[in-house]
């Protein structure tokens, strides 16, 4: 069992509106070898091709995550009892260059990986997973569970290789992802042309459109996820636009007819025991949602990923 060094602010003792906001009220700690799960923000939106503002995502989710308590109501997982969890701040980014930002983010996560911590991040646009994977998947390709309305498998977009529509393709090409262990759930956006998803089909990515999701039902989709990722190391990436816009209006490219928050919560809880090596929630744009529900849902999804990471941490220590 991990020796407990960091504990979150107890909201039953200290009111939620008090103190400086951190992710899920976790202790704010500089990265060190005692951190098992590193919560981090990545304030980058230079890879977004329509509505920007995801650079404010980490700050918005930190505020909203004041609502999060400490025990998962379905699985019973209490992550702070299982692992040392800390908010380690934000990855550095360059305000004028997506390429320089990618390099800075990679270097930041290389330090996280070297410290032995599992990163759970809030972006930022969906360029973010690429530098994270470059840092933590150097030893061989890993699996991916991707919740998204778009496949992010373009070779180029607007003449650029690094943006929120290309991260999966780059990661497969660079040997960071095993395409046969990649499953994308919630795909539904209108397409630019007939070949938008050809690459994914060609390399063996399992693509579950919303049409197929409805045909299969949640339980069958969970079975499909388990079949694809197996028991080996897997990264989880949630584009908040995978949720229906009623659940997450604050995002750059909303697509009607998406996954309900309840379904996504239960999908993640059903994957308890997966060998999660990192995860992120991206494309949260607080300024586009005056209700705040997008940040609230993102914060709750961060908690679900943290629960998975804590269980995986315990399993690795026992191995």
Automatic annotation (TrEMBL):
- The residues that hold Mn(2+) 2 are 126
Enumerate the InterPro entries for this protein. Answer: Ureohydrolase (IPR006035), Ureohydrolase_dom_sf (IPR023696), Ureohydrolase_Mn_BS (IPR020855)
**Domain of life, per lineage:** Bacteria
Instruction: Give this protein's Gene Ontology molecular function annotations.
Output: agmatinase activity; metal ion binding
Could you list this entry's UniProt keywords, alphabetically sorted: Hydrolase, Manganese, Metal-binding
Q: Can you say what this protein is called?
A: Arginase family hydrolase, arginase/agmainase/formiminoglutamate hydrolase
Q: How is the cofactor bound?
A: Binds 2 manganese ions per subunit.
Q: Which residues bind Mn(2+) 1?
A: 148, 150, 152, 239, 241
- Gene Ontology BP, a term: putrescine biosynthetic process from arginine, via agmatine
Per the similarity annotation, which family is this?
Belongs to the arginase family. Agmatinase subfamily.
Q: Which organism is it from?
A: Rhizobium leguminosarum bv. trifolii WSM597
Q: Which cofactor does it need?
A: Mn(2+)
């Amino acid at each position: 069992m991990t020796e407990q060094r960091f504990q979150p602010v107890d909201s039953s003792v200290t009111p939620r509106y008090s103190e400086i906001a951190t992710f899920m009220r976790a202790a704010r700690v500089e990265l060190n070898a005692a951190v098992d799960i590193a919560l981090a923000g990545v304030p980058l939106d230079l890879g977004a091709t329509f509505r920007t503002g995801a650079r404010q995502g980490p700050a918005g989710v930190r505020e909203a995550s004041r609502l999060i308590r400490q025990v998962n109501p379905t699985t019973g997982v209490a992550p702070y009892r299982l692992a040392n969890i800390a908010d380690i701040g934000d990855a550095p980014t360059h305000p004028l260059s997506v390429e320089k930002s990618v390099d800075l983010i990679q270097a930041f996560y290389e330090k996280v990986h070297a410290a032995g911590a599992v990163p759970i991040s809030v972006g930022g646009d969906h360029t973010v997973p690429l530098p994270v994977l470059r840092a933590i998947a150097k030893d061989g390709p890993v699996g991916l569970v991707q919740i998204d309305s778009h496949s992010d498998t373009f070779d180029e977009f607007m003449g650029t290789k690094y943006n929120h529509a290309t991260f999966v393709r780059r990661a497969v090409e660079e040997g960071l992802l095993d395409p046969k262990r990649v499953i994308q759930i919630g795909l539904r956006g209108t397409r630019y042309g007939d070949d938008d998803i050809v690459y994914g089909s060609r390399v063996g990515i399992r693509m579950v459109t919303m049409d197929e999701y409805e045909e299969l039902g949640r339980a069958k989709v969970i079975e499909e996820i388990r079949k694809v990722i197996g028991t080996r190391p897997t990264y989880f990436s949630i584009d908040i636009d995978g949720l229906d816009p009623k659940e997450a209006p604050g995002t750059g490219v909303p697509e009607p007819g998406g996954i309900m928050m309840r379904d996504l919560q239960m999908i993640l809880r059903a994957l308890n025991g997966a060998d999660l090596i990192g995860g992120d929630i991206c494309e949260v744009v607080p300024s586009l949602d005056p209700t705040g529900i997008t940040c609230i849902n993102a914060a709750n999804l961060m908690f679900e990923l943290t629960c998975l990471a804590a269980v995986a941490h315990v399993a690795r220590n026992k191995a």
